[in-house]
Each structure stands twice: as structure tokens, then as C-alpha cells.
Specification:
The protein has 570 residues and is of the alpha+beta class. Helices cover 32% and strands 20% of the residues. It has helices at 2-7, 11-25, 92-104, 155-169, 209-218, 251-265, 292-310, 317-324, 332-347, 442-466, 482-489, 501-513, 529-532, 537-549, 565-569; strands at 29-34, 51-52, 55-61, 67-73, 108-114, 127-130, 141-145, 173-174, 181-185, 192-198, 201-206, 224-229, 232-233, 236-240, 246-249, 353-354, 398-405, 416-423, 426-434, 475-479, 516-520. Strand 10 and strand 11 (201-206) form a beta hairpin. The chain starts with a helix and ends with a helix.
Length: 570
């Protein structure tokens, strides 16, 4: 190959040879003989009822430097199917929850990659190819595709069906909250074991994950790669702090981002202490529109930043959400802001999610008991799903912080809702989004944010229940607007503006039911501020330090406003 000649090696040829050998090992094709072709170049001897398509090779360099070639079918040449072709993947939130449960219940966390997963399933599509020179002595032969080759419309669904049968055979059932989390009771019956599936990547949480991997290999003949304690998964590295706390950080992904940046712009990003300037309003930027090349770069940069947010870097969520608005027609000032964000990520690349499972101590919170019997919420109770599995293992306390930033967008007048959710002491989910309506006062925007937070808390509590996790009776919601907290928690409080009615009643009903405690917190100590506005380094660093930077017990954190050598070592 030309690339191998230029590189002075045979890595791509070896990758192609390996791929075609594996294709044959899986008996992907049925050879039905030499193709008869007429003068117009059409195949006249194809199997009846079958459609001729093409295949091609896709090349990639993996994160560990391996050269990979993949034979892919031109599935766009096949007929649209009326059957289901969809195959889901586990959400990153669900994946974090499963990892949290592994730590909470002292289970082992393993990873495994099922090699050539789609080829483990048979296709139901009637298609064939005429072999090219890469198939050696089969060149010119009709090869019927019998396996779910990558690229076919229904291959994802066929692999899902195959894995479904395997999981059921092993005693696993899909969670009703996320069907790509499979669960079963452990052998001693004390906890549940889980397998989170992202296409062919497995995150296994079990008392004996080695046994599960052995069954997958020996009984079902899956070719597993990298099976063992989880070290890298979907862009995140996993290891333990000196005190044994599990840590998930996207350093490798950030390194790839910076390599891409240097290649595109010819320099490293300038290091910054904040994602955007405090109080910045990029929506009023009037700089020239980006060139076509910079427009393409902008889309790539936004995509990388969005994935980084999903991996755990919620400190750039508000800035990323704000800048995503300009994807259709970014200006030069907008791409300059993204460059600044890359500089911040480069400076703060040590940030990571740490799975701290100790329950928070809220003994210092005064829980006032109010009588709601003479209100419209009398006798209201939390709706608990009746089809949830029996709870097993240690219980979980959910804590949420909510904030709103009025007039975040000065063009539309819309505020931003920001929410941070924790299970025990672990950040699990985060939210930063412009509100759907324009509010004229902070009270309205904060109440709207509290309603969204309440809905998400209900969802998280039921997510845990459907995973068989005991949920503590009360969830804690902290907000920094006293008027909203008072209006939501005092039975005699009166609705002042009717257009706040839905938010007002939703939050008050949750409080009256007893499962939600809504408490005021000083805005300077509200970590939801990180997700609601473009902040100053001084204002949020103490919170960032405890949530994303500190290794070890957070009670030992010192109050320096710099990233010290001790922080990097801890």
C-alpha cells in the first residue's frame, strides 16, 4: 500500500490481512461460485431474491496505537426495512451509576471488548457481493453475506438480539430504566450484579467478573479483548487514588483534543483559568463570520467539548452549551472563545470524577415538619413503581443543587437552568440549559429551575429503584433563592403569579409528599453556579477543588486559590 511505502512499514497491509482472515474465521460469506457477467457488466447469475451490493475498507488508528482495518458493507444500497433496525447503547449517566454501585457494594469492576461483535450474529438481509482482488483466489466469485456485517442496515439490531439471548441465558435481565444495563442477583443474594453494554464494550460489575468472562468465551465462543480490571472505557481512564477511591478522568481524551488543536492551529492553546470571560455575552459578537475551514473546525471543537462534558467535565458545561448555539454560522469571535476553552481544559486537565460512596452528613439541617393536611396536597405520597425489583445492597442518598441565571442570553432574554446531582458524595449527573420561556424576575427563573430539578430527582430515584438499589426516604435539594425555597416549603405561602403555577405546584407537591427536602444554601457555596454562568476563578475554585480536583478526604482540603503541586500529587 502507498501509505505503508511512505511510512516504511507494513502495518496497514497487516491490518487488512488480519481483518480478512477474521472475516473468514467467522464464516461471514457463503461462496456460491464464479459470477456470470454480461456485456453491460451486470451479474446475471446472482441468487434469486438477493440484491448485489458493494463492500469497502475503513481504516483507523486505535487509542493504543494499533492499526485497524474494518470491512464494511455499503448498506445504503439495500432496501429500507420495515423491521426494527435500532440498537441502543448505555447512557454515560447509567454507566457512572453502575460504577458507583460497584464501589458502594464492594463489587469488582471489569471491562471487556467483544471482538468483531456484529459477526457473532446472522443477518436476515438477502444480499451478496462479487469478490474483488483482496479476496485472493475467490476474485470474481459470488459471496452471499450470511453474518451481520458492519454497515448493513439491520446489523446493530441483529447483534442486539444475539446479545439479548446470551444475557438471558446467563440469568441477566435488562433494567426497565436503561435496557442496556443488564442485571441479576449475586450468588449470595445480597446485591445485584450488572453488565453495561455500549455496542461491543462491556463494563462488568460483579462479585466474580472473571467467571462471567470465562462463560462468554467458553460457552458462547466470544473473542474477548482486554478483559480484566477496567482501566480505559469510552474515553475515560480508571484507576485508584492513594486512598483507594476509584477515579474516572478523561486525560487521554484531552490529550487527543490538544494534539488535534496543535495540528489544526500550529500552536498549543494559551492556558486559561476560566472557560469564558466572566459575564461574557457571545450572542452579541459582531465579528466577521468564520471561513469555511474555521466553520468545520468549530463543529469539531464543539463536538469534542460536548463529549468531554459527558465524560465528567461539567465545569465547561455552561460555556459549551452557550457556544453550541452558534454552530450554524460561527463568527471569528466565537472560535476565539472555543480556543480559550481549550486553553482552560489544558490547564485543568487533572480534573476527574471520584466515586466517594460515604453518605453525606446532614445532621446540621433543621428539618421543619409542616402540616399539609389543610392544603390541596393533603395525603399526597411519592409514587413508587410497583414493578421495580426487590432492593438489595446499601442505600443511596441523593443530593441536588439548583441555580438559575436570569437574562443569560441578552438577545432572547432567556435564563439558564443549572443542576448538579450527587449520589452520596459522587457527582452523577449535571444539567445546563436555557429555559423555554422568558422570565422577568429571578424568582420565576429560579422556580422554573426548581421544577426541572424536582422532575430529575424523581427520575433518579426511580432509576435507582429499577436497578434494585435501596433509596433513602428523603432526597435533598439545595437552592440559593430564599423566596423560592420559602414559597415551596411553607404550606401557607401563596402563589403570586399564575404563570408560575406549574412550577409552584410541582415542587410543593414533592415537598408535601415528604421525599424532597428543599433547603436554602448561600449562593457562594452553591456548586450549581459552576453550571449556570460564566464565573470567576476565585468564586468557584473551592467548589471545583472538592468536586473534581481533590484526591482523598474532602475535609482535608485547604483553601489556596491555586493548583499547587500538592493538588497534582493528591
Amino acid at each position: 500500500m502507498e501509505l505503508d511505502r511512505k511510512n516504511g512499514n507494513t502495518k496497514w497491509k497487516e491490518a487488512i490481512d488480519l481483518e480478512l482472515k477474521q472475516i473468514d474465521d467467522y464464516q461471514t460469506f457463503n461462496n456460491v461460485g464464479k459470477a456470470e457477467i454480461n456485456a453491460e457488466g451486470q451479474v446475471i447469475s446472482g441468487p434469486e431474491g438477493y440484491k448485489k451490493i458493494r463492500v469497502h475498507l475503513v481504516f483507523a488508528v486505535k487509542h493504543d496505537g494499533r492499526h485497524k482495518a474494518r470491512l464494511v458493507a455499503d448498506g445504503h444500497l439495500t432496501r429500507n426495512t420495515t423491521e426494527g433496525a435500532y440498537s441502543g447503547v448505555v447512557s454515560l449517566r447509567s454507566l457512572r451509576i453502575v460504577m458507583f454501585l460497584s464501589e458502594l457494594n464492594a463489587l469488582k469492576l471489569w471491562g471487556a471488548d467483544i471482538g468483531n461483535a456484529y459477526l457473532e450474529a446472522f443477518t436476515e438481509e438477502k444480499i451478496f457481493i462479487v469478490a474483488g482482488p483482496e479476496f485472493g483466489d475467490r476474485k470474481g466469485h459470488i459471496l452471499i453475506i450470511s453474518k451481520a456485517l458492519y454497515g448493513l442496515r439491520t446489523s446493530g439490531a441483529r447483534w442486539h438480539d444475539r446479545l439479548f439471548d446470551v444475557m438471558r441465558d446467563m440469568g441477566f435481565l435488562p433494567s426497565k430504566n436503561d435496557p442496556d444495563i443488564w442485571m441479576r442477583p449475586s450468588k449470595d443474594g445480597k446485591v445485584y450484579e450488572y453488565i453495561a453494554v455500549y455496542v461491543d464494550d462491556l463494563a462488568i460489575v460483579a462479585q466474580d467478573p472473571a467467571e462471567i468472562c470465562k462463560i462468554l468465551k467458553d460457552k458462547f465462543k466470544f473473542k474477548l479483548k482486554g478483559d480484566g480490571p477496567l482501566e480505559y472505557h469510552l474515553g475515560c481512564g480508571y484507576w485508584r487514588d492513594p486512598d483507594g477511591t476509584l477515579e474516572a478522568d478523561p486525560k487521554k481524551y484531552i490529550e487527543k483534543m490538544m494534539e488535534w488543536y496543535e495540528k489544526e492551529f500550529g500552536e498549543k492553546p494559551k492556558k486559561m483559568k476560566t472557560p469564558l470571560e466572566p459575564g461574557d455575552h457571545p450572542e452579541i459578537d459582531e465579528s466577521p463570520e468564520c471561513s469555511e475551514k474555521d466553520q468545520s473546525r468549530y463543529l469539531t471543537m464543539i463536538g469534542q467539548l460536548q463529549w468531554l462534558v459527558a465524560l465528567g467535565r461539567f465545569d465547561i458545561f455552561c460555556a459549551t452549551m452557550t457556544m453550541s448555539k452558534f454552530r450554524p454560522a460561527p463568527r471569528e469571535g466565537h472560535i476565539s472563545r472555543l480556543k480559550r476553552m481549550y486553553g482552560y481544559v489544558s490547564e485543568m486537565r487533572i480534573a476527574a470524577i471520584r466515586f466517594r460512596t460515604a453518605e453525606p452528613n446532614y445532621d446540621n439541617i433543621d428539618i421543619l415538619q409542616h402540616d399539609w393536611m389543610r392544603t390541596v396536597y393533603r395525603n399526597v405520597k411519592e409514587v413508587i413503581p410497583e414493578d421495580a425489583p426487590e432492593p438489595r445492597g446499601k442505600p443511596v442518598v441523593t443530593t441536588s443543587y439548583v441555580d438559575a441565571n436570569l437574562y443569560h442570553d441578552v438577545v432572547t432574554g432567556k435564563a439558564v437552568t443549572a443542576i448538579l446531582h450527587l449520589f452520596n458524595q459522587t457527582p452523577i449527573d449535571w444539567y445546563s440549559k436555557k429555559q423555554g420561556t422568558v422570565e422577568t424576575a429571578t424568582f420565576g427563573s429560579e422556580f422554573s429551575a426548581a421544577r426541572t430539578a424536582t422532575d430529575q430527582i424523581v427520575d433518579l430515584r426511580n432509576t435507582l429503584r429499577y436497578l434494585g438499589v435501596p433509596v433513602k426516604e428523603r432526597s435533598y435539594l439545595f437552592g440559593d433563592n430564599k423566596s423560592v425555597v420559602t414559597n415551596a416549603t411553607i404550606p401557607t405561602s401563596v402563589l403570586s403569579k399564575r404563570h408560575h403555577a406549574l412550577s409552584y405546584h410541582r415542587v410543593r407537591e414533592a415537598v408535601a409528599s415528604g421525599f424532597l427536602l428543599f433547603h436554602w444554601i448561600d449562593g457562594k457555596k452553591n456548586p450549581a453556579d459552576i453550571l449556570s454562568k460564566h464565573w470567576t476563578f476565585v468564586s468557584v475554585f473551592p467548589m471545583l477543588k472538592s468536586l473534581l480536583l481533590w484526591r482523598g478526604e474532602t475535609k482535608d482540603i485547604k483553601n489556596e486559590l491555586t493548583i499547587t503541586d500538592q493538588d497534582k500529587a493528591n
